[in-house]
Amino acid sequence: MARDAWLFFRLSVWWLPFNCLWTALLTQGLQVQVEHFVPPEEKGGALATLTAIGATFSLLAQILVGPLSDRCSHPLGRRRPFLLLGTLFSLPFLFGFAWLNNFWMVVVCFALLQWWLNLAVPPVRAFLPDLVPPERHGAASAQVGLWSLLGQVTGMVVTGLFLSPSFWQQWGMPVEKAIAETWGLRWFVVGVAFLLLFATLLTATLPDRPAPPSPTSLWHSLANAYRLSLCEHRDFLWLLTSRFLLNLGFYTAVAFMRWFLADTLKVPDPAKATMQLGLLVTVVSVPSVLVGGKWADRMSKKRLCVSAALVAGVGGLFFVAATSFPMTWLPAALFGIGSGIFAVANWAWAVNLMPKGEGGKFFALWQFAFTLPQVFGPSLAGKLGDWVNLLLGMGAGWRAVFLLCVAEMLAGALLLRKIRER
Question: Cβ distance 197 to 87 under 8 Å?
Fold first, then answer.
């Protein structure tokens, strides 16, 4: 048990700073930078541009690195070189994102941050099927989920506090909203950079071996890596499509949450309100992840995913109908319960459908369901939000965006019915 605990810890700890960073950036960091450089009537389109370009670089990195890590014969192993290279080279662009004062320079830094840090993602994910037997995938996935949730909580709390002018006033530094947001974002970046370095060093101690040398060329290996038999991997591809639709709704909602609270519900301190709501969702997700991990090893993952998605969908529908901030609390709690169970069961299901020894490639494909929604979701929803805001008044557009999110997530849940279990 102690050996498993140490292994699971090292498999999971990197996801704390990773999720801390992306939760902070996707919920408030990107929006703050857009607000500082773009007129209010254009911010939906500007956010769409920023997220789409960044997510495209993320996608390209993962397409390249997944199969390469499966075939990497470097003396450090298959996964470790990409973990070290990706994390270390991402840091200058993380600092550039927070310190530069030009929108297009922020876009460039965000794109290159996505590129380098996402070079590490498929190899780190692939450590789990490399090192954990199938009957323990649920337990290991639950540990990864818990550390990911802890990262999300940390990201939400720190940015919610640091970006709020009231936080700086408590320390005897009364400043304007824009200055508080600039200071807060920069201090957050410094802290998360140290966490990333520490977690990377721990993860790098995991057992890793080089792959046997391949006689084929690099590009031939890359092309062959993504040749999949549609019949052989039919269930995995349907699960991938379902997760894409669910994430399309989720990441769009995350991107526009701050403006839904500020412009639609007229919350006076959107930084603090976004933190409070996100924290509520995440806190109720923690016991859900623990329960979901145990259930995923003992019962039908399909039945568990469908039930959890329905609970989260009900919460989403009530959230869209809210007319005040307190009316969002119960729907947010329902969404957190459903999404926590769904996340761990869905991941364990995906791992079970992947062929042994090809985790890098299949986790790179799985990551498409997380990066492509960040390209298409805000791109479509941002323009929709700006148009409806112009037509019906500021704030109406973000309610229309959230209604679209619920429809996308329900469509993803319905696709689960087509997938068989092993």
Answer: yes
DSSP code at position 25: I
H helices, E strands: number in the chain = 17, 0
Q: Which of 159, 170, 194 is nearest to 33 (CA)?
A: 159
Distance, CA of 75 to CA of 81 (rounded, Å) = 9
Nearest alpha-carbon partner for 160 in 196, 195, 184: 184
Please report, in angstroms and rounded to a whole number, the separation of the first and last CA atoms in the chain. Answer: 27
Could you tell me the pTM of the whole model?
Answer: 0.77
| Residue 172 neighbours by CB under 8 Å, 6+ apart | none
* DSSP-derived secondary structure for 327-369: GGHHHHHHHHHHHHHHHHHHHHHHHHHSPTT-HHHHHHHHHHH
Q: Please report the sign of the dihedral spanned by the C-alpha atoms of residue 266, residue 272, residue 273, residue 275.
A: positive
pLDDT tens across 387-408, in order?
999 899 888 899 999 999 889 8
Which residue is listed with tokens 């919350």?
267
Residue pLDDT, tens place only, 239-254: 888 888 888 888 888 8
* Burial (0-12, 13-18, 19+ Cβ within 10 Å), 186: middle
Determine the length of the chain. Answer: 422
String of b and e for 294-327 (b: at least 16 CB within 10 Å)? ebbbeeebbebbbbbbebbbebbbbbbebeeeee
